[in-house]
# Entry
Amino acid sequence: MSSKPDIEGTYVFGIEDNRRGYALNKLCSTFTSAENRQLFLGDEASYCDKFDLSPEQRSAILERDWVKMLDLGGSIFYIFKLAQLDKKSVQYLGGIFTGMSTEEFIAELKAGGRHFG
Amino acid sequence: MAEIIWGLATSHVPSIGAAMDNAKTHDEYWSPLFEGYQPARDWMAQHTPDVVLVIYNDHANAIDLDLMPTFAIGTASHFPVADEGWGPRPVPPVLGHPELATHIVESLVDDEFDITVANQLQVDHGLTVPLSVYTPEPGDSWPCPVIPVLVNVLQYPQPTAKRCYALGQAIGRAIASYPENIKVAIFGTGGMSHQLSGERAGLINESFDHMFLDKIQTDPEELTRITREEYIREAGSEGIELIMWLVMRGAMNPVITRIAETYHVPASNTAAALALFENSENPS
# Structure
């Protein structure tokens, strides 16, 4: 059994997540090439076919279900490359993850950030 | 003998680099952070090293899911600037210092620290943003060669804080045994508190950050006793990057002098800090 800590409201990306999310993260990793970015934007579905995605991972990518991507083993550092293709900021994602608008999320950070515990 | 002359602890938030690349450092949002950098920048410009070691983590660019070295050192003569998904940063290519890097690898392995060797490595914002914090306007080239030192902070299990500190101590011994008389600066990068995903996204923990900023100078041993779980719980899933500051600290002398410090919330989703330390003379 893994010693990976279980922390509420927090994804701790571990080896099992790497295994589960491999295809999804691998797809996002290819966006470090401008050619691949164009190929993806030209035909997202065909691009997805090149990777061994689960049906859930495939629809999460195509529907931009960011929470689902993380739940299916996505790592924020890979998923962020897809968000950047959509010209979405890390504050936009923060808003999605916390049920806020981007503006509300930015305002919370400017006010000193969100505090827990 | 090579000598570490100073250590710089700094956040490596990509948007700090973007603010410099897009001439936004005087904007209302960014100016407090960059004004905070100025005393350190002025001092560093008067105390130039011959080479810098940058302790950092890659962000899904040079290192992917296939191979995840816990610690690695770049031994190449040059390191291209990575395209992270939106084109490479418009900064000069990074030149390495193969002779010192090779010496450090050999010394570490003889010291029973089995480090991974990166013969080819693209460097991302984790390395180039700290270089820009040091040298905001490099022109055509960075002021000196750079040795990248990579730490896995993306995938659990990350190395323990204690192991990072021990690595730093071993790096310190390696540098001290290098026969050439050169001056070295060491950068510990990442942090401070931040979390990018999950319901706790946007987490900032000022009291933890200030404790860490204090103890990194005065009592690093105490910071080595903080567990990975506590780092993630207190500083956020990405705040665990702070363990990389302990590599820098371990390489420095037991007593160090604080030259400058700044702390600012927010830089993007992060509590950004800079702390600059001069390596005090070893008591002989």
Residues 91 and 106 of chain A are 6 Å apart (CA to CA).
